[in-house]
Amino acid sequence: MPLHGVLVFLGCIALARRLHKETKFDCIDAHFVYPDGFAAVLLGKILALPVIVSARGTDINVYPSFPVIRPMLRWTLRNAAGAIAVSADLKNKMTTLGVSEAKIQVISNGVDVERFQPQEAKASRRRLGLAEEGPIAISVGSLIESKGHHLLADAVAKLAPSFPKLRLYIIGEGVYHSRLEELVREKHLQDRVFLLGNRPNEELNLWFSAADLSCLMSSREGWPNVISESLACGTPVLSTRVGGIPEILASPELGSMVERDIGSIAKGLERALSRSWNRLEIARHSRSRSWDAVAEEVETFLKSKALP
């Protein structure tokens, strides 16, 4: 891993020189501070171009804990012309690496408002072949420990007596798949928790619309798109209070946050499934942050750093 940044740079330099000679660039826009941003800053020094690096999540939430990687993160951020953070939480963490707060711009992710929009719940369930009655929760994300699908499944088991018809659909793939399958068998959840694997992104709109609640029990996040996409469909969210999530769920009318333990998640599920949500208002509020709006903010920031 300590060599990744240098190897990316070496793999890019010849092509970057040629492209820059053909079409003069104003700047380099790099996403993920290491290794991509590190390689981009090296390219910028060779090509005499300003470099903007964007932090997405793991690069700042996890990588600074690696003693060999932390200095390279700091060097990248200090030598970049500017930096973008997808959440205020990430910005604060970037400043602990010794980066000036004035150098960092928070530009949160947007949502595809054409793809993610409210659909009638029962019609969505019919299209997906789901039962029209009974509460449905959905959890979308890679099947890894940090996403907390296992905690959510345990919470669903805990609620079996009070919510006998509750079903949880988990969308995603990853190394934790077999562990989740084992948990479903151990807890006798075969008719309550369903592992769907990866589904086409175009289909997620139906799943969010069919669900009563969208859940994300992560231990760390940057600005999770699945929450924005769920809200854009009018589906309330139950999530842990990590990363940029409190910035997304800025109102209790959009969803609620819980501690990352089975008891707290179970109580959160019970409260969220027992209350009424204004799904049209949730969608209206969340659809205002389009990718076009994000693009305009990014363009303005790039121009401010590349064209002083």
Structural topology:
Elements: H1 4-22, E1 28-31, H2 33-47, E2 51-55, H3 58-61, H4 69-79, E3 82-85, H5 88-95, E4 104-106, H6 121-128, E5 136-140, H7 149-158, E6 167-171, H8 177-186, E7 193-197, H9 204-210, E8 213-216, H10 225-232, E9 237-240, H11 245-248, E10 255-258, H12 262-274, H13 279-286, H14 291-306
Parallel strand pairs: 1-2, 2-3, 3-4, 5-6, 5-8, 6-7, 8-9, 9-10
Helix pairs in contact: 1-2, 2-4, 6-9, 7-8, 7-12, 10-13
Question: Can you describe this structure?
Answer:
The chain is of the alpha/beta class and 308 residues long. The chain has two domains: 4-110 and 291-306, 3-Layer(aba) Sandwich (Rossmann fold), CATH 3.40.50.2000; 121-286, Rossmann fold (3-Layer(aba) Sandwich). It is built from 14 helices and ten strands. It has a six-stranded parallel sheet with strand order 7-6-5-8-9-10, with helices on both faces. The protein has a four-stranded parallel sheet with strand order 1-2-3-4, sandwiched between helices. It is elongated and about 65 Å long.
Content of β-strand: 5-15%
What would the average pLDDT be, to the nearest integer?
Answer: 95
- Name the poorly predicted regions: none
Helicity range of the residues? 40-55%
The CATH class designation of the largest domain is: Alpha Beta
Radius of gyration: 21 Å
Number of helices: 14
Kindly report the name of the CATH homologous superfamily of the largest domain. Answer: Glycogen Phosphorylase B
Which fold name fills CATH's third level, the topology of the largest domain? Rossmann fold
Shape: elongated
> Would you report the number of β strands?
10
CATH architecture assignment of the largest domain: 3-Layer(aba) Sandwich
Cα(first) to Cα(last) distance is 35 Å
Total count of domains: 2
Topology order in helix (H) and strand (E) letters: HEHEHHEHEHEHEHEHEHEHEHHH
Structural category is alpha/beta
Main beta sheet = 6 strands, parallel
What spatial order of strands do you see in the largest sheet?
7-6-5-8-9-10
